[in-house]
Design a protein that fits this description.
The protein contains twelve helices and eight strands. By secondary structure, the chain is of the alpha+beta class. The strands form two sheets. A four-stranded mixed sheet has the order 1-4-5-8. Strands 2-3-7-6 form a four-stranded antiparallel sheet, with no helix packed on it.
C-alpha cells in the first residue's frame, strides 16, 4: 500500500495550513496550551474558524454534494483532520461532522438527511452524542434510558453521562431503550433530540484540567416526535456501532502527538539545562518519533481502505488503541524531561506537560477502552474465539 500523498493532496494540505494560519493568532501554538476548550477565547475562535471552513464545504469534504459535501476522498478528509489537529485549530461541532452526520447518512430517512446534513455542512447546528450512562460505558448495550411510544411521540426518561459539548449543542443523537423485554442489544433505538426540549436539564462536569465540555444530561418526561426516530425501532445498537467506528478512525491522536514531540525537541534545544539526563532524553524522543510514524501509517491506512470500499473495523481499533497509548507515553516522556517545571501549568517553557499528562489518562477509556479495542482486534482481526 502506497502511503505517499499525490501532488494534489500535498497542495491541499499546504493551502489549508496557510488558510488557518491567517485566522489563528500568531502565538496560538504557545498560547493554546493554557486555554481550555470552555474558555471564551477558544469558543469565539472555534466559531470563526468553523464558519470560514464551512463556506467552501471543507468540513464535509467526503460527503455527497447533495448533502453539503464535495464528494472528495476519505483520504483528503483525513488530511483535513490531520492539519486541524496538528495546528490545534478549534472547531465547533466535531460530533456532528465526524460521527452523527455519517450516521444519519447511513441510517436516517431522506427527510432527515435533507433537513439536517446541509445544516451540519454549513455550520448552523451543533450536535452532541447522548450514549453513555452512569452504568453503561464500555458495555453500552446495558443502557437504561427509556423511550416509551405514546401515539405520534416517544416519552424519554433517564440520564446520560460524559456527553461532550451537550451544554453548547442544540441537537443530540440519543440512544434509548424502546423494548425492555428484548435482549439488551435488540431493544435500543436512536432519536434526534432538540436540546432545548422541555424536561432536559444539563449539568456540566469540570474535568481534571478544568475544562467544562463534559456533561450529565437528564431527561424528565421529554417528548420527542416519532419523526425523529433514526432508522428502525429497536435497531439502534447496530447503528450506534457504526457511528462509533467513525469516531475510532481519526488521525488526530498522532497529529497532536507530532506537535507535542516537536515542542519537546525545541524546548531541549533552546534550554540545554532542562533535560538533566541528555542521553536518556534523546533516546526517549527518538523512540517516540519512531512510534509516531508507525501510528501515522496505521491512521492513513484506514481512509485508503475506505476509499477502496473496505470497512476497516479492526484496523480502526488498532489505530485507536495505538494512538491512545502513544499519547500517554509522550505525556510521560514530557513530564520526565521537564521535571519539576513540567508540573506547573504556566511554566517558563510555555508547554504544559502536566496538562497533557492528566488529559492522556482518559485516552484509553473514552470512545472505547483499550480492553474493548483488543477484543475487536482479536475477534475481527485475528479470528480468535470470544
Amino acid at each position: 500500500m502506497d502511503f505517499s500523498f499525490t501532488a494534489y493532496e500535498e497542495e491541499f494540505q499546504l493551502d489549508l495550513t496557510q488558510r488557518l494560519a491567517r485566522i489563528l493568532p500568531k502565538n496560538w501554538q504557545d498560547e493554546s496550551y493554557v486555554i481550555n476548550n470552555s474558555n471564551e477565547k477558544w469558543l469565539h475562535l472555534a466559531e470563526e474558524i468553523t464558519k470560514d471552513l464551512s463556506k467552501d464545504r471543507l468540513l464535509t469534504l467526503a460527503w455527497p454534494k447533495k448533502y453539503g459535501g464535495l464528494e472528495e476522498t476519505n483520504l483528503k478528509q483525513t488530511i483535513f483532520n490531520h492539519v486541524i489537529s496538528y495546528l490545534a485549530a478549534p472547531i465547533n461541532n466535531i460530533a456532528g461532522i465526524q460521527w452523527i452526520g455519517p450516521t444519519l447518512m447511513m441510517h436516517g430517512n431522506e427527510e432527515q438527511k435533507t433537513i439536517y446534513l446541509p445544516r451540519i455542512a454549513e455550520a448552523i447546528d451543533k450536535w452532541c452524542m447522548l450514549y453513555s450512562e452512569p452504568t453503561a460505558g464500555s458495555d453500552l448495550a446495558s443502557l437504561q434510558t427509556r423511550a416509551i411510544k405514546n401515539g405520534d411521540n416517544y416519552i424519554i426518561n433517564g440520564q446520560k453521562l460524559w456527553s461532550s459539548n451537550a451544554n453548547f449543542a442544540n441537537l443530540g443523537l440519543l440512544a434509548a431503550r424502546t423494548n425492555p423485554e428484548a435482549p439488551k442489544h435488540k431493544g435500543i433505538s436512536n432519536f434526534i433530540v432538540p436540546m432545548d426540549s422541555k424536561g432536559i436539564s444539563i449539568n456540566p462536569i469540570e474535568d481534571i484540567n478544568g475544562n467544562k465540555n463534559l456533561n450529565e444530561v437528564y431527561f424528565d418526561n421529554v417528548i420527542v416526535s416519532a419523526k425523529n426516530l433514526v432508522g428502525h425501532e429497536n435497531r439502534g445498537w447496530y447503528q450506534m456501532a457504526s457511528s462509533i467506528d467513525f469516531e475510532r478512525s481519526g488521525v488526530g491522536a498522532f497529529s497532536n502527538a507530532k506537535r507535542n514531540i516537536e515542542k519537546l525537541v525545541t524546548i531541549i534545544k533552546d534550554n540545554p539545562n532542562i533535560a538533566k539526563n541528555k542521553k536518556s532524553a534523546r533516546d526517549d524522543i527518538a523512540d517516540r518519533w519512531i512510534e509516531l510514524n508507525t501510528g501515522f501509517n496505521l491512521a492513513f491506512k484506514i481512509p485508503l481502505l475506505q476509499d477502496a470500499g473496505i470497512n476497516p473495523t479492526y484496523e480502526a481499533s488498532v489505530s485507536k488503541l495505538y494512538g491512545a497509548e502513544l499519547t500517554q507515553k509522550i505525556a510521560q516522556t514530557g513530564m520526565s524531561i521537564l521535571g519539576m517545571d513540567g508540573q506547573l501549568k504556566n511554566n517558563s517553557v510555555k508547554y504544559s506537560a502536566a496538562d497533557n499528562y492528566l488529559a492522556s489518562v482518559a485516552n484509553t477509556i473514552a470512545s472505547g477502552t483499550s480492553e474493548i479495542q483488543r477484543n475487536t482486534i482479536a475477534n475481527q482481526g485475528l479470528g480468535l474465539p470470544r
